[in-house]
Amino acid sequence: xxxxxxxxxxxxxxxxxxxxxxxxxxxxxxxxxxxxxxxxxxxxxxxxxxxxxxxxxxxxxxxxxxxxxxxxxxxxxxxxxxxxxxxxxxxxxxxxxxxxxxxxxxxxxxxxxxxxxxxxxxxxxxxxxxxxxxxxxxxxxxxxxxxxxxxxxxxxxxxxxxxxxxxxxxxxxxxxxxxxxxxxxxxxxxxxxxxxxxxxxxxxxxxxxxxxxxxxxxxxxxxxxxxxxxxxxxxxxxxxxxxxxxxxxxxxxxxxxxxxxxxxxxxxxxxxxxxxxxxxxxxxxxxxxxxxxxxxxxxxxxxxxxxxxxxxxxxxxxxxxxxxxxxxxxxxxxxxxxxxxxxxxxxxxxxxxxxxxxxxxx
Length: 362
Ligand code: PMP
Prior knowledge:
Layout: E1 7-8, H1 18-26, H2 46-63, E2 69-74, H3 77-89, E3 96-100, H4 103-115, E4 119-124, E5 146-149, E6 151-152, E7 157-158, E8 170-173, E9 188-194, E10 205-210, H5 227-232, H6 242-259, H7 262-281, E11 299-302, H8 307-319, E12 322-323, E13 334-337, H9 344-361
Parallel strand pairs: 1-12, 3-4, 3-5, 5-8, 8-9
Antiparallel strand pairs: 2-10, 6-7, 9-10, 11-13
This protein binds 4'-deoxy-4'-aminopyridoxal-5'-phosphate (PMP).
C-alpha cells in the first residue's frame, strides 16, 4: 500500500479535508468516550442526536439561514430530490419551471415530467452545448417554483447571479457547490445537495426546506417521500445514515473553525480557480470551452489538442499522484474538481504538472 496520500480531483465522491479524515480515524474505535464506534452508536442515543443537531446548527450558521429554514438529512441522493421536489412542491398543480443547463438539470427536468403535467423549460443553453448560463430569464406565468442547477458539475458552468423570481420560490440543486461561496438564501424555497462533493461522504443528502414550502406537501404521499416527515422527526423518522451525518458535522466544523466560514472559503476557492483558469487562458495547448463569466470554480473542464494527448495526460497525472482528472463519460476531455477540501497546494501542483506536460508534448 502506498504511504503517500495523493491529490484527489475526483468529481464526487471527492476530496475530504485531511483533519476530518484524521479525526474520523482517531474516534473510530471509541467515539467520544462511549467505548463504541460511531458506526455502533444508536441513532436514538443522546450522542448521535448531539451530532445531528450540531450539524444542523452549523449548516444554518454557515449559510445564514433563519428559523424559517429546516435542514434535513435524507437518502436517495440528489437524484431522489429530482422526484421529491415536484411531488412535494408543485403548488395546486400550478406549472413548474426549470432551466436546462445540461446533464443534471436535464435529468431533473425529465423526472419532473414523470410527475407533473405542465413542466416549462423557461431557458436553456442547449443551443451552445451548455457552455453558458442563460441570462435575463422572464417568468411569464405564476409557476410553483423555478428550478436551477447552481453548479453544473459536468459542463463546468456555475450561476454567478441567480435569476430574480419575485414571489416564485427558487429551487436549487447545489450538489457541487454548497458551502463554496456566499449567497443570499432568502429567495430559495428549497436547496439540496448530495453530500459527496463539498459536504461529506456519499450516503446522505442535505435538503434545506423553507417553512412555506411545507404547506404544499400532499397528504397522500408515501411517508418517506414527504419533506414534512423529515421536518417533524428532525430527520429521525427512521434510521438515518449516521456515519455520513457524523462526517458532515466534522466538515461543517472544519469550515467554521479551521477555515473561518464561507466567505473565507470563497476567497480560497477564488484563488484556486484563478490559478488554473489564468494559466489555461495564457496558452493554447489546453482549452476551456465555457463562456468566461459563467465558469465554474468547482469543476474546471479542459481539452488537449488530441484524444491521444488527453489519455497520456491522465495516465501520467495519475502516476504523479494527481487523481480523478478524466472528464465525465458523456463529454470526454479532462476535468479538475476543485471542491472545498482541495487545497491551493494541490492546484499549484496540478498547474505545474500541466506546464511540464506541455514542455514535453507541446
Ligand atoms: N446534481 C448534480 C449537480 C450532480 O453533480 C450530481 C452528481 N454528480 C447529481 C445531481 C446526482 O447526485 P446523486 O448521485 O447524489 O443522486
